[in-house]
């Protein structure tokens, strides 16, 4: 992924307001004065859908600090390379959890988490859900998996029940502890030139009597 400072050569060194303004102007010029690409929250809406336009859209969103974009039923996550606590706040998790249609909210890993959670709760076949997190080394797969585990820990535990919360934390920890094993399978794939540091895991864990 190109960092925004690579987009406009020679204009990104200034950190003052004027520098930032010219960066934005240059970027807009670079984008050819098209409709603001960062507002497209689904890559299938980019017209025409080409590698160039898709990358431009992701670049434009990255520049606006928007790190999640839908691509049809797939979610594309960009690594912000900086901490963004508000993007993973428990309040935001609850917002996605409580939304009648989470897919209508801004693209987020919590949408994926909530959808699978609802599928498990609905007990409609197939009850077991899988989420595939893939990407290059350093893309943010482990981070994303942790976000999902935290999400399930928050939404699956009743705030009134301390015991439920503790159990959710124990489940989160167990799954996170299994990461090295799952990653080892991924690395084996790299050696075989089949996969590139990918791992799969079941999520959320099987549901028993109403609790995760
Ligand atoms: N959403 C995010 N917000 C903030 N920082 C992030 C985010 N995603 C990734 N990072 C940063 O990028 C680093 C690398 O991410 P991560 O370890 O998840 O990559 P990975 O895809 O699992 O890499 P590998 O395949 O090599 O294990 C993290 O340590 C974190 O600092």
Automatic annotation (TrEMBL):
PROSITE patterns named among the record's database cross-references: MYOSIN_MOTOR (PS51456)
Domain of life: Eukaryota
UniProt-annotated binding residues for ATP: 135-142
GO molecular function: actin filament binding; ATP binding; microfilament motor activity
Stored Pfam families: Myosin_head
Cross-referenced InterPro entries: Kinesin_motor_dom_sf, Myosin_head_motor_dom-like, P-loop_NTPase
Residue ranges of the TM segments: none
Gene Ontology CC annotations of this record: cytoplasm; membrane; myosin complex
Residues annotated as domain Myosin motor: 38-212
PANTHER family per UniProt: MYOSIN (PTHR13140), UNCONVENTIONAL MYOSIN-XIX (PTHR13140:SF289)
Entry's family note: Belongs to the TRAFAC class myosin-kinesin ATPase superfamily. Myosin family.
Protein name: Myo19 protein
Organism: Phodopus roborovskii
